[in-house]
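Postdoc handover notes: sequence design on the structure in folder B. Input C-alpha cells:
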C-alpha cells in the first residue's frame, strides 16, 4: 500500500517537473521569436528612416508607445509593399505623426 502511494507520488512529481520544463522551453522560444522579430523590425526601420527620425521615434516611445508602434507598423508595411520612394527624414516623420495623433477636443465653459 505504501509502495503504491510512493509510486503515485513519484510519477506525479515527474509529471509536474516535465510540465515545468516544457513551459520554460515554450517561454524561451517565445522570447527568442520576439527578439528576432524586434531585430528584423529595427533593421527595416534603419533602412527607411534617417538617424534623426529614428531618434525622434525612440524619444516619443517613452510617452506615446501606442502611437509609435502604430507608426512603425505603417512604415514597415509601406516599405515592404514598395510604396516608399525615399528615406523618411525628421520633417516627414513630424508631419506623419501630426496626422496620426488624435485631435484634442477643447472644452469651453460659458458662464451665464
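Designed sequence:
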Amino acid at each position: 500500500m505504501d509502495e503504491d502511494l510512493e509510486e503515485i507520488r513519484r510519477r506525479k512529481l515527474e509529471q509536474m517537473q516535465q510540465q515545468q520544463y516544457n513551459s520554460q522551453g515554450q517561454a524561451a522560444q517565445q522570447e527568442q521569436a520576439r527578439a528576432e522579430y524586434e531585430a528584423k523590425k529595427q533593421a527595416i526601420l534603419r533602412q527607411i528612416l534617417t538617424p534623426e527620425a529614428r531618434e525622434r521615434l525612440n524619444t516619443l516611445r517613452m510617452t506615446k508607445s501606442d502611437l509609435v508602434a502604430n507608426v512603425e507598423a505603417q512604415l514597415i508595411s509601406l516599405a515592404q509593399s514598395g510604396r516608399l520612394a525615399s528615406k523618411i527624414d525628421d520633417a516627414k516623420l513630424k508631419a506623419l505623426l501630426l496626422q496620426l495623433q488624435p485631435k484634442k477636443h477643447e472644452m469651453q465653459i460659458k458662464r451665464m
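Context for whoever picks this up: The mean pLDDT is 87. Don't rerun without checking with the PI first.
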